[in-house]
Every structure is written in structure tokens, then in C-alpha cells.
From TrEMBL:
Name by which UniProt lists this protein: DUF2971 domain-containing protein
Organism lineage string: Bacteria, Pseudomonadati, Pseudomonadota, Gammaproteobacteria, Pseudomonadales
Name of one Pfam family that matches: DUF2971
Superkingdom, natural source: Bacteria
Length: 284
């Protein structure tokens, strides 16, 4: 799947073509202050909700008494002990997020609003990348944006209940010491998976009114900044309704002399029948 980057024509966007580089931004550079605001998990809250849910499941006869009592004890221990390192953990996560690099792309190259907002009122251009995340740094991953009315619920108790129900059912035949070792090992795996789920939600939750962008994000977990990409992954360039002939020729010439002769060029044109753009291939 191609990912598209809408750009105004300026020094920085032309450097993308000339130098085969893109800039992964820190989250603090994003224009929406609600971005990256999803609350982190809070174990006492999660297990308190899990305890309430267990009561309901037990009363309905869905959970048998032995497993119910076992899970209630786990929940009560965590609720009682709390999480004294919670503030410190959340601070460390926030500090880590400040070093993460993010590059936003769209799944479409014909969105009128994006041409207006990000491509200098249709005077810019739109770059089409193919698997850019595989052609920058090894640690870069691609995630679709999750458009929502509310933040993701990272204290959802269902995951915890399912996890402990499964391991109780599968391993309760083990001797106590072996059971505890298996339980501890799997709990560590659950925490890693939960941390990953939380991290992805924080990085990809976005207010649903932005959904027209059809965004997905490339995330470099180590650092933000300029990243080199392989020229072969730049597949197309689409010119806007108002892109000047001078700018078109400039961009075509840059591609020809920087190992990107394979690039296919398109022109955005007004539809005659609706408020839409038609993307037409042109010869360069």
C-alpha cells in the first residue's frame, strides 16, 4: 500500500527529493494538543474494575467458585498494595515518548482538504511512498491511526480476566511451585503486551473529526530527526491543481538526477461532476 505525503514546495520538501531524506517529528511538534493524551494504565483501577466484573460473572454462574476466589485474591492483593511506582513509571514513559520519531502519511492522494491544509492551497505536491517504514531504519514500524470520540480505555479489565482465567484452566493441575513459576512468567508476558498496547494507543489515538486524513504513522522508537530512505520506495509524485509549470519541471528534473527515474507523475484535476479531484497520469 502506498503512503502519501502532502507538501508545500519549499527548501525542506525539495530536500526530501534531493537527499532522499524524511523528517520524523517528536510528538511535541504535532499541531493537535489532544494528540498523545490517552491516559496510561493504572493497575489499582484496572484490578478494582476486574474485581467488580468477577463478582458479576460469579453471580451469573459463568465463573466457578475455585477460579473466582483465586482471581479475587489476585485483584485484592494488587488493589491493597497499590502501585507506589506509578507516577515514576508514567514520567519515564512520557520522557521516552519525547525521543520517539513519527512520520505521518495518508492512504489517499486525492483529499481536497489535505491539499488545502498541507500542500499550500493546492500549489504543492504529494509524494507517494511504498513501504517507507521498511526503507528507513530497522526499528521503524507502521501503525494505522485509530480515530475515536474518546480515549482508548487502557484500564479495561477484560484482558486481565481472560488472561488469568486461561492460565488457571490450563495449568491448575501443576504443583504449587510450578504453578507459581508459570503464572509469574505469563504475567510478565502480559505486562509487556499491555505496555505495547498502551504505547500504540497513545501514539495512534486521534479525534474522529480528523478521519478524512486516513492517516497512518511510521514510528521510530529510538529517535526523531532526519532519516535516509532508499530511492526505490518513492513511487509517485502528484502535482496540485495550482502547481506552477516551473515547479513541476523543477521537481521532475530533481527526480531524474537523483536515481528516481522510475517515479510516475500525476496531475490533480477538478472533477466536472462533484466536489472531488481526479488524479491523471502525465508524461514527464
Amino acid at each position: 500500500m502506498l503512503g502519501y505525503k502532502y507538501r508545500a514546495i519549499n527548501q525542506y520538501s525539495l530536500e526530501t527529493l534531493q537527499n532522499n531524506t524524511v523528517y520524523f517529528s517528536p510528538y511535541t511538534d504535532f499541531n493537535d494538543p489532544f494528540e498523545f493524551s490517552t491516559p496510561f494504565p493504572n493497575l489499582p483501577i484496572m484490578y478494582s474494575r476486574a474485581s467488580t466484573e468477577l463478582d458479576i460473572l460469579h453471580k451469573k454462574g459463568i465463573l466457578k467458585t475455585p477460579i473466582y476466589l483465586h482471581l479475587k485474591n489476585i485483584c485484592e492483593d494488587i488493589i491493597k498494595d497499590g502501585d507506589p511506582k506509578l507516577d515514576s513509571i508514567h514520567y519515564k514513559i512520557r520522557e521516552k515518548l519525547k525521543t520517539v520519531g513519527i512520520y505521518s502519511l495518508s492512504s489517499v492522494n486525492d483529499e481536497i482538504l489535505m491539499w488545502s491544509h498541507y500542500a499550500d492551497n493546492h500549489k504543492g505536491f504529494c509524494i507517494g511512498f511504498d513501504t517507507l517504514h521498511k526503507n528507513t531504519t530497522p526499528q521503524t514500524k507502521s501503525f494505522p491511526v485509530n480515530y475515536r470520540n474518546t480515549f482508548s480505555d487502557l484500564n479495561d479489565p477484560d484482558i486481565v480476566i481472560k488472561f488469568y482465567t486461561d492460565i488457571f484452566s490450563k495449568y491448575r493441575h501443576l504443583p504449587p511451585r510450578a504453578w507459581q513459576a508459570k503464572s509469574d512468567k505469563l504475567a510478565t508476558i502480559l505486562k509487556k503486551e499491555d505496555d505495547l498496547r498502551g504505547g500504540i494507543s497513545v501514539l495512534t489515538d486521534k479525534y474522529h473529526k480528523w478521519s478524512y486524513e486516513q492517516e497512518f504513522r511510521l514510528v521510530d522508537e529510538k529517535t526523531y530527526g532526519v532519516k535516509k530512505f532508499k530511492p526505490k520506495c518513492l513511487k509517485s509524485i502528484t502535482f496540485g491543481l495550482r502547481t506552477s509549470e516551473e515547479d513541476k519541471l523543477k521537481i521532475i528534473e530533481i527526480c531524474k538526477r537523483t536515481d528516481k527515474k522510475h517515479v510516475i507523475f500525476f496531475q490533480a484535476e477538478k472533477s466536472r461532476h462533484s466536489f472531488e479531484l481526479e488524479i491523471v497520469e502525465i508524461k514527464a
